Protein backbone atom coordinates (compact mmCIF):
# COMPACT_ATOMS: atom_id res chain seq x y z
CA UNK A 1 0.00 0.00 0.00
CA UNK A 2 1.31 3.49 -0.79
CA UNK A 3 0.32 6.99 -1.78
CA UNK A 4 -0.37 7.89 -5.40
CA UNK A 5 2.86 8.78 -7.11
CA UNK A 6 4.94 7.95 -4.02
CA UNK A 7 6.91 4.91 -2.79
CA UNK A 8 5.15 2.08 -0.95
CA UNK A 9 5.64 2.08 2.79
CA UNK A 10 7.24 -0.99 4.37
CA UNK A 11 5.47 -2.76 7.25
CA UNK A 12 8.27 -1.62 9.57
CA UNK A 13 7.80 2.01 8.50
CA UNK A 14 4.08 1.73 9.09
CA UNK A 15 4.68 0.15 12.48
CA UNK A 16 7.14 2.86 13.47
CA UNK A 17 4.59 5.48 12.46
CA UNK A 18 1.94 3.63 14.45
CA UNK A 19 4.09 3.66 17.57
CA UNK A 20 4.53 7.40 17.34
CA UNK A 21 0.83 7.95 16.63
CA UNK A 22 -0.16 5.61 19.42
CA UNK A 23 2.00 7.50 21.85
CA UNK A 24 0.78 10.89 20.72
CA UNK A 25 -2.93 10.07 20.70
CA UNK A 26 -5.29 12.42 18.86
CA UNK A 27 -5.84 16.13 19.12
CA UNK A 28 -9.47 15.55 20.07
CA UNK A 29 -8.54 13.67 23.27
CA UNK A 30 -8.84 15.52 26.52
CA UNK A 31 -6.34 15.45 29.38
CA UNK A 32 -2.57 15.73 29.32
CA UNK A 33 -0.87 14.91 26.02
CA UNK A 34 1.22 11.71 26.24
CA UNK A 35 4.91 11.85 25.30
CA UNK A 36 5.86 11.52 21.60
CA UNK A 37 7.66 8.18 22.11
CA UNK A 38 7.55 5.13 24.30
CA UNK A 39 8.17 5.83 27.98
CA UNK A 40 8.23 2.87 30.36
CA UNK A 41 7.41 3.31 34.05
CA UNK A 42 9.82 0.92 35.74
CA UNK A 43 10.68 0.70 39.44
CA UNK A 44 13.40 0.89 42.05
CA UNK A 45 17.01 -0.18 41.76
CA UNK A 46 17.77 -2.98 42.54
CA UNK A 47 14.50 -4.58 41.53
CA UNK A 48 12.88 -6.78 38.91
CA UNK A 49 10.67 -4.03 37.44
CA UNK A 50 13.54 -1.77 36.46
CA UNK A 51 15.59 -4.67 35.08
CA UNK A 52 12.73 -5.89 32.90
CA UNK A 53 11.85 -2.35 31.78
CA UNK A 54 15.40 -1.72 30.58
CA UNK A 55 15.55 -4.98 28.64
CA UNK A 56 12.13 -4.31 27.10
CA UNK A 57 13.37 -0.90 25.97
CA UNK A 58 16.33 -2.52 24.22
CA UNK A 59 14.15 -5.22 22.65
CA UNK A 60 11.57 -2.78 21.34
CA UNK A 61 14.13 -0.43 19.88
CA UNK A 62 15.94 -3.25 18.08
CA UNK A 63 13.02 -5.37 16.89
CA UNK A 64 10.64 -2.54 15.99
CA UNK A 65 13.24 -0.27 14.43
CA UNK A 66 12.48 2.66 16.71
CA UNK A 67 14.60 5.77 16.10
CA UNK A 68 15.35 6.11 19.81
CA UNK A 69 15.53 3.78 22.77
CA UNK A 70 12.35 4.06 24.88
CA UNK A 71 12.87 6.06 28.05
CA UNK A 72 12.82 4.03 31.28
CA UNK A 73 11.68 5.83 34.43
CA UNK A 74 12.93 4.92 37.88
CA UNK A 75 9.90 5.03 40.17
CA UNK A 76 8.74 3.98 43.62
CA UNK A 77 6.77 1.13 42.05
CA UNK A 78 3.24 0.11 41.10
CA UNK A 79 1.21 2.99 42.51
CA UNK A 80 3.43 5.66 40.97
CA UNK A 81 3.60 3.70 37.72
CA UNK A 82 -0.18 3.71 37.43
CA UNK A 83 -0.31 7.43 38.15
CA UNK A 84 2.20 8.02 35.35
CA UNK A 85 0.30 5.80 32.92
CA UNK A 86 -3.18 7.27 33.40
CA UNK A 87 -1.71 10.78 33.56
CA UNK A 88 -0.14 10.35 30.11
CA UNK A 89 3.46 10.66 31.34
CA UNK A 90 4.21 7.01 30.52
CA UNK A 91 2.98 4.87 27.63
CA UNK A 92 3.86 1.50 29.20
CA UNK A 93 3.88 0.49 32.86
CA UNK A 94 4.60 -2.52 35.03
CA UNK A 95 2.35 -2.92 38.04
CA UNK A 96 1.00 -5.36 40.55
CA UNK A 97 -2.44 -6.44 39.39
CA UNK A 98 -4.10 -5.41 42.67
CA UNK A 99 -2.95 -1.80 42.28
CA UNK A 100 -3.77 -1.79 38.56
CA UNK A 101 -7.28 -3.11 39.23
CA UNK A 102 -7.94 -0.48 41.89
CA UNK A 103 -6.88 2.28 39.50
CA UNK A 104 -8.74 0.82 36.51
CA UNK A 105 -12.00 0.78 38.50
CA UNK A 106 -11.95 4.58 38.59
CA UNK A 107 -10.77 5.32 35.03
CA UNK A 108 -12.75 5.12 31.79
CA UNK A 109 -12.00 6.12 28.23
CA UNK A 110 -8.65 6.44 26.49
CA UNK A 111 -6.66 6.57 29.74
CA UNK A 112 -8.06 3.28 31.04
CA UNK A 113 -5.18 0.87 31.73
CA UNK A 114 -5.35 -2.39 29.77
CA UNK A 115 -2.98 -5.33 30.03
CA UNK A 116 -0.54 -6.69 27.49
CA UNK A 117 0.57 -9.63 29.63
CA UNK A 118 0.93 -11.17 33.02
CA UNK A 119 4.69 -11.13 33.56
CA UNK A 120 5.50 -13.03 36.74
CA UNK A 121 4.33 -13.22 40.33
CA UNK A 122 5.65 -11.14 43.21
CA UNK A 123 6.13 -12.58 46.66
CA UNK A 124 5.61 -10.37 49.71
CA UNK A 125 8.67 -10.64 51.94
CA UNK A 126 8.55 -9.70 55.61
CA UNK A 127 12.24 -9.63 56.44
CA UNK A 128 13.84 -9.80 59.90
CA UNK A 129 17.26 -10.66 61.25
CA UNK A 130 17.74 -14.35 62.00
CA UNK A 131 18.15 -13.61 65.73
CA UNK A 132 15.00 -11.45 65.90
CA UNK A 133 12.29 -12.15 68.48
CA UNK A 134 9.68 -11.65 65.74
CA UNK A 135 8.16 -14.92 64.56
CA UNK A 136 4.71 -14.12 63.16
CA UNK A 137 2.80 -11.18 61.73
CA UNK A 138 1.14 -10.67 65.14
CA UNK A 139 4.57 -10.03 66.66
CA UNK A 140 4.85 -6.77 64.72
CA UNK A 141 2.75 -5.05 67.38
CA UNK A 142 5.06 -2.52 69.04
CA UNK A 143 7.91 -3.21 66.57
CA UNK A 144 9.84 -0.81 64.34
CA UNK A 145 8.68 -1.67 60.82
CA UNK A 146 9.16 -0.25 57.34
CA UNK A 147 5.98 -0.61 55.31
CA UNK A 148 7.54 0.65 52.06
CA UNK A 149 7.40 4.10 50.45
CA UNK A 150 4.30 5.90 49.24
CA UNK A 151 3.89 5.16 45.54
CA UNK A 152 5.08 1.58 45.85
CA UNK A 153 2.90 -1.45 45.24
CA UNK A 154 3.88 -3.17 48.45
CA UNK A 155 2.84 -0.44 50.88
CA UNK A 156 -0.86 -1.17 50.21
CA UNK A 157 -0.18 -4.87 50.80
CA UNK A 158 1.62 -4.09 54.06
CA UNK A 159 -1.27 -1.93 55.24
CA UNK A 160 -3.81 -4.63 54.35
CA UNK A 161 -1.83 -7.31 56.15
CA UNK A 162 -1.53 -5.15 59.26
CA UNK A 163 -5.28 -4.50 59.19
CA UNK A 164 -6.04 -8.21 58.77
CA UNK A 165 -3.87 -8.89 61.83
CA UNK A 166 -5.80 -6.20 63.77
CA UNK A 167 -2.58 -4.28 64.31
CA UNK A 168 -2.93 -1.43 61.85
CA UNK A 169 -0.29 1.23 61.47
CA UNK A 170 -1.19 2.56 64.92
CA UNK A 171 -0.22 -0.72 66.55
CA UNK A 172 3.39 -0.49 65.38
CA UNK A 173 6.02 0.88 67.71
CA UNK A 174 7.53 2.95 64.91
CA UNK A 175 6.56 3.18 61.24
CA UNK A 176 9.08 3.86 58.48
CA UNK A 177 8.40 4.27 54.77
CA UNK A 178 11.70 3.16 53.30
CA UNK A 179 12.57 1.91 49.84
CA UNK A 180 14.31 -1.44 49.51
CA UNK A 181 17.89 -0.13 49.63
CA UNK A 182 17.21 2.09 52.65
CA UNK A 183 15.26 -0.67 54.44
CA UNK A 184 18.08 -3.15 53.98
CA UNK A 185 20.58 -0.68 55.42
CA UNK A 186 18.27 0.17 58.34
CA UNK A 187 17.80 -3.52 59.22
CA UNK A 188 21.54 -4.11 58.95
CA UNK A 189 22.22 -1.16 61.28
CA UNK A 190 19.52 -2.20 63.77
CA UNK A 191 17.36 0.91 63.24
CA UNK A 192 14.30 -1.17 62.31
CA UNK A 193 13.13 -4.64 63.33
CA UNK A 194 11.45 -5.69 60.08
CA UNK A 195 10.58 -4.49 56.59
CA UNK A 196 8.03 -5.37 53.95
CA UNK A 197 9.00 -5.90 50.34
CA UNK A 198 7.15 -7.36 47.38
CA UNK A 199 9.24 -8.63 44.51
CA UNK A 200 10.40 -11.57 42.46
CA UNK A 201 12.19 -14.46 44.09
CA UNK A 202 15.04 -14.05 44.49
CA UNK A 203 15.28 -10.27 44.83
CA UNK A 204 18.91 -9.31 44.31
CA UNK A 205 19.10 -6.81 47.18
CA UNK A 206 17.69 -9.26 49.72
CA UNK A 207 19.90 -12.06 48.42
CA UNK A 208 22.93 -9.82 48.86
CA UNK A 209 21.79 -8.99 52.41
CA UNK A 210 21.37 -12.70 53.23
CA UNK A 211 24.92 -13.35 52.02
CA UNK A 212 26.32 -11.07 54.73
CA UNK A 213 23.66 -11.17 57.46
CA UNK A 214 21.55 -14.21 58.41
CA UNK A 215 17.87 -13.36 57.90
CA UNK A 216 14.44 -14.92 58.17
CA UNK A 217 11.16 -14.24 56.40
CA UNK A 218 8.12 -14.24 58.68
CA UNK A 219 5.64 -16.94 57.70
CA UNK A 220 2.30 -15.33 56.81
CA UNK A 221 0.36 -18.59 56.77
CA UNK A 222 -2.09 -17.72 59.56
CA UNK A 223 -3.08 -14.42 57.94
CA UNK A 224 -3.26 -15.56 54.33
CA UNK A 225 -6.72 -17.11 54.57
CA UNK A 226 -8.22 -13.95 56.01
CA UNK A 227 -6.33 -11.83 53.47
CA UNK A 228 -7.68 -13.81 50.53
CA UNK A 229 -11.23 -13.68 51.88
CA UNK A 230 -11.12 -9.89 51.80
CA UNK A 231 -8.98 -9.55 48.68
CA UNK A 232 -9.34 -12.53 46.29
CA UNK A 233 -6.78 -10.99 43.91
CA UNK A 234 -4.00 -12.41 46.10
CA UNK A 235 -2.69 -15.99 46.15
CA UNK A 236 -0.49 -18.08 48.42
CA UNK A 237 3.17 -18.51 47.51
CA UNK A 238 6.16 -20.27 49.00
CA UNK A 239 9.76 -19.12 49.28
CA UNK A 240 12.08 -22.16 49.27
CA UNK A 241 14.67 -22.32 52.04
CA UNK A 242 17.63 -22.36 49.66
CA UNK A 243 16.77 -19.00 48.04
CA UNK A 244 18.03 -16.82 50.91
CA UNK A 245 19.61 -19.49 53.11
CA UNK A 246 16.47 -19.63 55.26
CA UNK A 247 15.93 -22.13 58.08
CA UNK A 248 13.02 -23.61 56.09
CA UNK A 249 10.38 -22.84 53.42
CA UNK A 250 8.07 -19.92 54.18
CA UNK A 251 4.43 -19.31 53.22
CA UNK A 252 3.97 -15.83 51.79
CA UNK A 253 1.47 -13.76 49.86
CA UNK A 254 1.70 -13.84 46.07
CA UNK A 255 0.45 -11.19 43.62
CA UNK A 256 0.64 -11.11 39.83
CA UNK A 257 2.54 -8.43 37.92
CA UNK A 258 1.21 -7.15 34.61
CA UNK A 259 2.46 -5.11 31.68
CA UNK A 260 0.03 -2.30 30.87
CA UNK A 261 -0.71 0.33 28.24
CA UNK A 262 -3.53 2.89 27.90
CA UNK A 263 -6.69 1.92 26.03
CA UNK A 264 -5.86 4.69 23.52
CA UNK A 265 -2.91 2.72 22.13
CA UNK A 266 -3.79 1.33 18.71
CA UNK A 267 -4.14 -2.43 18.32
CA UNK A 268 -1.23 -2.92 15.91
CA UNK A 269 1.18 -1.17 18.27
CA UNK A 270 0.00 -3.14 21.29
CA UNK A 271 0.32 -6.40 19.40
CA UNK A 272 3.78 -5.49 18.12
CA UNK A 273 5.02 -4.71 21.63
CA UNK A 274 3.94 -8.02 23.13
CA UNK A 275 5.00 -9.99 20.06
CA UNK A 276 8.52 -8.57 20.31
CA UNK A 277 8.67 -9.23 24.05
CA UNK A 278 7.82 -12.90 23.66
CA UNK A 279 10.18 -13.28 20.73
CA UNK A 280 12.99 -12.26 23.12
CA UNK A 281 11.75 -14.10 26.23
CA UNK A 282 15.19 -15.65 26.95
CA UNK A 283 16.61 -12.12 27.28
CA UNK A 284 13.90 -11.24 29.79
CA UNK A 285 14.76 -14.36 31.77
CA UNK A 286 18.40 -13.29 31.82
CA UNK A 287 17.37 -9.92 33.23
CA UNK A 288 15.68 -11.62 36.18
CA UNK A 289 15.13 -15.26 37.20
CA UNK A 290 11.52 -14.27 37.98
CA UNK A 291 10.90 -13.83 34.25
CA UNK A 292 11.65 -17.50 33.52
CA UNK A 293 7.94 -18.21 34.10
CA UNK A 294 6.78 -15.82 31.35
CA UNK A 295 5.00 -17.68 28.55
CA UNK A 296 2.10 -16.97 26.22
CA UNK A 297 -0.33 -19.32 28.00
CA UNK A 298 0.09 -17.94 31.51
CA UNK A 299 0.40 -14.38 30.19
CA UNK A 300 -3.34 -14.05 29.57
CA UNK A 301 -4.05 -14.31 33.32
CA UNK A 302 -4.34 -10.57 33.94
CA UNK A 303 -7.78 -10.62 35.58
CA UNK A 304 -9.43 -8.48 36.82
CA UNK A 305 -7.63 -6.11 34.42
CA UNK A 306 -8.78 -6.87 30.83
CA UNK A 307 -6.37 -7.47 27.98
CA UNK A 308 -5.85 -4.84 25.31
CA UNK A 309 -7.53 -5.88 22.01
CA UNK A 310 -4.12 -5.92 20.33
CA UNK A 311 -2.84 -8.36 22.94
CA UNK A 312 -5.92 -10.54 22.43
CA UNK A 313 -5.09 -10.71 18.71
CA UNK A 314 -1.54 -11.79 19.53
CA UNK A 315 -2.60 -14.56 21.94
CA UNK A 316 -5.18 -15.86 19.49
CA UNK A 317 -2.46 -16.11 16.86
CA UNK A 318 -0.38 -18.22 19.27
CA UNK A 319 -3.43 -20.27 20.37
CA UNK A 320 -2.83 -19.10 23.92
CA UNK A 321 -6.23 -17.38 24.19
From TrEMBL:
Keywords associated with the record: Receptor
Designated name of the protein: TRAP transporter TAXI family solute receptor
Keyword Lyase set for record: no
Source organism of this protein record: Pseudonocardia parietis
InterPro entries per UniProt: TAT_signal, TRAP_TAXI
Superkingdom classification of source: Bacteria
Coiled-coil zones: none
Gene3D superfamilies registered for this protein in UniProt: Periplasmic binding protein-like II
